[in-house]
Write a structure and sequence with these properties.
With about 290 residues, this protein is α/β, with parallel strands linked by helices. Helix content is about 45%, strand content about 15%. The structure holds adenosine-5'-triphosphate and magnesium ion.
């Protein structure tokens, strides 16, 4: 068909936020599940060094982590967890205080191993810690695409603005996607066909955010979509199962599927600035330039 010789490109997308608890981990797990429903192969890299969450949400328990890989005890392949639906997880590096504190050799070895295990995978989704810390920026800088997960809550918007500002002014990021999560539904029945109440609220919040960004920052913003506040999200976390598996027709699950479709539609879009190779090139450059994480 003409694409026979084209090497498949792994799309590396990091999910980040200014404020904590906006729904990064939930979004990564649910979007990953939705992408597997679309027939894509997906790997999640749990880069939240503080609290390992991805495994907890999926009810799986890592025996070993990246820490063991760095200590040379096991290979990265051996720490990867298989979650229901064909998802694969690189569990959080518990025992490692900061990836920025790694030696150049450790970092090179880790990145090479990630490249190997993610080869041929359609998506590598990175779940980061909240805030503008050095590790977070390290992963955001390395990923080809950055998704800022925020809620219409004013503190979340203020912190998201600070994050986008640092991304653009200090790390040269030109484009950021926004996922408006946990949007109030205003007690209106949610229907699929029309622009629903939560979508209106979410779009308005995105507009306000976009106006502030357009005035003061040189970043292209794109709204990936809105996900309503839905108590089934909490239920699924308590059950340690993906929302899409447990409550496939809940409002949040339907919204997440739309977001995943939008992400996937851009697969061959030129907006995507690079895949896996880009990821590693960036990491190595940070190394060469003596990136200290400060
Ligand atoms: N769409 C939603 N509707 C209802 N509750 C939600 C929604 N999204 C997230 N939540 C709730 O918000 C809480 C935080 O979610 P999550 O852990 O995904 O956030 P986070 O951004 O990863 O947090 P952290 O910054 O601590 O890593 C969870 O308890 C979850 O139940
Ligand atoms: Mg999290």
């Amino acid at each position: 068909m003409g694409f026979g010789n084209m090497k498949s490109v792994t799309r590396v997308i990091s999910f980040t936020s200014g404020k904590g608890g906006t729904g990064k981990t939930t979004s990564v797990v649910n979007i990953a599940t939705a992408l597997t429903e679309l027939g894509r192969s997906v790997m999640i890299f749990d880069a939240d060094l503080g609290l390992a969450n991805v495994d907890v949400m999926l009810g799986i328990r890592p025996q070993r982590t990246i820490h063991d890989v760095l200590e040379g005890r096991v290979r990265l392949e051996e720490v990867i967890l298989n979650a229901p639906g064909g998802l694969r997880i690189i569990p959080a590096a518990s025992g490692v205080s900061s990836l920025c504190a790694l030696s150049a050799r450790q970092r090179l070895s880790l990145t090479q191993q990630i490249e190997q295990v993610a080869e041929g995978v359609d998506y590598l989704l990175i779940d980061t810690q909240a805030g503008i810390g050095a590790d977070v920026m390290y992963f955001n800088g390395a990923a080809a695409e950055v998704v800022c997960v925020m809620t219409p809550d004013p503190t979340s918007m203020t912190d998201a603005y600070a994050l986008v500002k640092v991304l653009s002014q200090e790390y040269g990021e030109r484009a950021v996607s926004v996922l408006m999560n946990n949007v109030p539904t205003a007690d209106v029945q949610i229907r699929t066909a029309e622009l629903t109440a939560y979508e209106k609220i979410g779009q308005q919040a995105f507009q306000r955010f976009g106006n502030a960004v357009a005035r003061f920052l040189h970043v292209e913003l794109d709204c990936l979509g809105c996900v309503p506040a839905d108590r089934m999200v909490g239920e699924s976390i308590r059950a340690q199962k993906p929302l899409l598996e447990l409550f496939p027709s809940s409002p949040a699950a339907r919204a997440v599927r739309r977001v995943a479709c939008r992400i996937d539609q851009a697969f061959l879009d030129h907006r995507v600035k690079g895949g896996m190779q880009f990821f590693f090139q960036q990491l190595l450059e940070m190394n060469e330039h003596g990136y200290s994480g400060a």
